[in-house]
């Protein structure tokens, strides 16, 4: 038995690919982050950011939080803020799926929608301007070390232990870059030869959850020295692989997970031997109103 839903954050399963990739000598495993209670990898960062801020005294029960999000972080923050009795406003582009908006509201958050044309950058600008009024505290997932440290403390050790120290490559989509920064830091401390592979969209692709940031918006927590290689995926690849994951592996996930998997499969095809772990960052049910699975 668990005392709190927060006890269920992390310790997500690893599942071996059977059909989207199958090659003797090379094993591809998916880390199923949709098994977190809030449905995504972002539960880890949200929990660590809020818990650490409370412990340091940066925030308290009278603090009003505000954060820009493309979706999954907002859902995680809404859930965890509610558990701690905190008020939170979440700012996101108006073209975000209705499932995401409704889920945040269900957890008790206030949601503000900004122009779709301005993207997540516009949401970030809006939240930062509101914070300057002095009435809000921003956790700032893009520049908060508690983001990547969540993965240093949990995701990295889980992968290391669950693969019995045999992991050779780690593949992750890059958004805030917290997942890849923290996991890379831990895994490289255990074995510097482990290859860390980041996934970005091609210039003409829009893949929710994966970004190639303009220099002015590059996450402050990102350190390029912690990524050995970056693979680019296009929108069509990401959509096709999301559908294949559901149909062939029984793994129902969003487009960023499809993009990461497409890159991981491409990587695996190059290898003669290895154990590759790829992050499946969320669940597909929050994309049903989009055309992802149509």
Automatic annotation (TrEMBL):
Enzyme class: transferase
Keywords, sorted A to Z: Amino-acid biosynthesis, Cysteine biosynthesis, Pyridoxal phosphate, Transferase
Family annotation (Pfam families): PALP
Gene3D superfamilies on file: 3.40.50.1100
GO biological process: cysteine biosynthetic process from serine
EC number: 2.5.1.47
MF terms in GO: cysteine synthase activity
Cofactor: pyridoxal 5'-phosphate
Pathway note: Amino-acid biosynthesis; L-cysteine biosynthesis; L-cysteine from L-serine: step 2/2
Catalyzed reactions per annotation: O-acetyl-L-serine + hydrogen sulfide = L-cysteine + acetate
Keyword Amino-acid biosynthesis among record annotations: yes
The Tryptophan synthase beta chain-like PALP domain, residue ranges: 6-282
Name under which the protein is recorded: Cysteine synthase
PANTHER family: CYSTATHIONINE BETA-SYNTHASE
Keyword Protein transport: no
Binding site for pyridoxal 5'-phosphate: 72, 175-179, 256
Coiled-coil features, chain-numbered ranges: none
Family the UniProt entry places it in: Belongs to the cysteine synthase/cystathionine beta-synthase family.
Modified residues (N6-(pyridoxal phosphate)lysine): 42
């Amino acid at each position: 038995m668990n005392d709190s839903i927060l006890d269920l954050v992390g310790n997500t399963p690893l599942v071996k690919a059977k059909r989207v990739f199958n090659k003797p000598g090379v094993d591809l495993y998916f880390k199923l982050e949709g098994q977190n209670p809030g449905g995504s990898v972002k539960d880890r960062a949200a929990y660590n950011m809020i818990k650490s801020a409370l412990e340091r005294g940066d925030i308290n029960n009278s603090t009003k939080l505000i954060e820009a999000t493309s979706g999954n972080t907002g859902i995680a923050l809404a859930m965890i803020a509610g558990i701690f009795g905190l008020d939170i406003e979440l700012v996101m582009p108006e073209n975000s799926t209705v499932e995401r908006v409704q889920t945040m509201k269900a957890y008790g958050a206030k949601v503000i929608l900004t122009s779709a044309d301005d993207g997540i950058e516009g949401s970030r600008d809006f939240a930062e301007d509101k914070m300057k009024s002095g009435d809000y505290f921003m956790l700032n997932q893009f520049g908060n070390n508690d983001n990547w440290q969540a993965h240093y403390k949990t995701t990295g050790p889980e992968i290391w232990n669950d693969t019995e120290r045999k992991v050779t490559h780690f593949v992750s989509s890059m958004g805030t870059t917290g997942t890849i920064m923290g996991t890379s830091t831990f895994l490289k401390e255990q074995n510097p030869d482990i290859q860390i592979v980041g996934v970005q969209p091609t210039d003409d692709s829009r893949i929710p959850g994966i970004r190639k940031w303009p220099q002015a918006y590059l996450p402050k927590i990102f350190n390029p020295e912690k990524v050995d290689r970056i693979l680019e995926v296009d929108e069509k690849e990401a959509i096709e692989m999301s559908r294949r994951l559901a149909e062939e592996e029984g793994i129902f996930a969003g487009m960023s997970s499809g993009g990461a998997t497409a890159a991981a499969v491409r990587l695996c095809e190059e290898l003669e031997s290895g154990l590759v772990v790829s992050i499946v960052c969320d669940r597909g049910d929050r994309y049903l109103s989009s055309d992802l699975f149509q």
